Amino acid sequence: MAMQRPLPRHHSIFFLILRRLRAPLVLLIGIIAVSVLGLTLTPGVDEAGEPHSLSFFHAFYFISYTATTIGFGEIPHTFSDQQRLWVTICIYLSVIGWAYTLGSVFRLLSDRSLRQAVATQGFVRAVRRLREPFYLVCGYGETGRLICQALERMGVRAVVIELDDDKVGEIDLHSYTLDVPALCADAGNPETLEFAGLTHPHCIGVIALTDDDQANLAIAIAARLLAPRLPALCRAEHRETSANMASFGTRHIIDPFERFSETLALALHAPKASQLLGWLTGLPGTRVERRRDPPRGHWIVCGHGRFGRWMVDAMDAEAVPVTIIDLDARPDGAHRWVQGDSTGAESLRQAGIDQATGIVCATSSDVDNLSIAVTARALNPELFVILRQNHEANHALFKAFDADITVVPSRIITHECLAILSTPLLVPFLQEVRTRDEDWCDARLEHLTARLGWTVPEIRSERINLKRAPALYRRLMQGEGITLEMLLRSPSERSAALECEVLFLDRDDDDHLLTPEGSTPIRPGDELLLAGTRRALNDFGLVIANEHTLNYLLTGKDLPGGWIWEKLSHRARPAGPPKLP
Fold first, then answer.
1. Buried b (16+ CB within 10 A) or exposed e, 437-457
2. Most buried among 122, 382, 439, 513, using CB within 10 Å?
3. Residue ranges of the RCK C-terminal domain (predicted)?
4. Do 386 and 511 share a domain, yes or no?
5. pLDDT (tens digit, 9 = 90+) per residue, 102-135?
6. Which residues form the domain of 195?
């Protein structure tokens, strides 16, 4: 098991303080030494008028409380004029020494290196004390904040590395229930990643969400080499970066614009499949309305940056004609180009807005995108509008416009990450759905929404093993035949069906079943992907884990309580498969 390396010497607060205070401390010690020595050599007299010299102890004691402004008086005898003259000199010397020392201390306290060293040591200690699973989140922008909030709802800890000190300070303002250790540092530095727990035995994954592709690439490489067992989810904004990450074996590479281009291409090619995927991958608890399908016809793409290029590629894949408006027009012979500002009505008219069926507002400015959308809708009210929203803070403005589709990169990345982290089985299920025809997708969508409504369901996976489903697992290992239909019933009223559906059944022998029938028998080791209400999914978890609940569901009888009575009832249980009414 890999362990974290000890904190390097240059991060030690003690040695840093000694280095910065070396000169003032030497000066102060020198002043005290000279003062003590001079006081022992200066002649004095006792009460009897006899000559008397102070011992080193008495001199040090007197200089100590005099230099610190305490002032207990002259000891052990009243001082002579020579002694008082020397003490006066010592007082002014000590004032100079203390002023210099205190000034150096105040400068040290405001020194960025010391604050960074203190924060680093506190952060490293907090990470080393973690004794529960946690994810290492690199980057605390809009996406990082959404990820941390979602992880907290899931009851999973997060450790954050962020380069912007202001964003690190925001973590305390968000009042997380679980403490979130955070460090202001470069996440692309492997040493920083090790301090943050990359090789910690309780680290269960790395999520690279910075807005710098090179930093995300460095994180991906470090994760691959230093902790190859950990899943790494990395954001990539350029295709070259994605290819480089893939060459290092990064498991999950997320480009939000590429993901949406795939969604748009699917919506143009198979709108029902797109609606089914949108309903399943939305934010749980939110209501999804039946939206218009993206029409096939003439489209206009405003802005040919990263997002615009992905949109054009998606439409080219579906043979949809496109006109591109951009200030830097680069005719390629395959598309019609209009050079100009997309926010102006004249450029939109030149692009054929009157005959267009859809428009993509794809610039990097939220204000420009809203301006384009408002102008385009005024010229063509029936236009299908895809609107790019770059910043979550502008949500109210984009909601007020009510575009057909609003593309928010931070939400796309968040949903993708959560799908991978919380329900890994969802990814192969969605891949299977994309291969099905429109009739199948339409039938599944109608069936699921008829049972669960248009509110986005909770998605959860359950593996039938001794840890997750002990009651069901024991019965299956004893040879009992149990089907899905027997389990998908309410533990309070066995005749009522649970408000959930099994979307996917994964088996170790690669015998995967998409939306299996209720008569499908369950086997030990099966993993089920379920969609439904939170209450129904919790009830299902109770059914497969609790022997009393499972027995009631299968036989209609309650087991007697208590360990002794339960053992006796097991002996008296009749053989034979259970039957439902």
1. eeebbbebbeebbeebeeebb
2. 513
3. 494-546
4. no
5. 998 888 888 777 887 888 888 998 999 999 999 9
6. 114-254
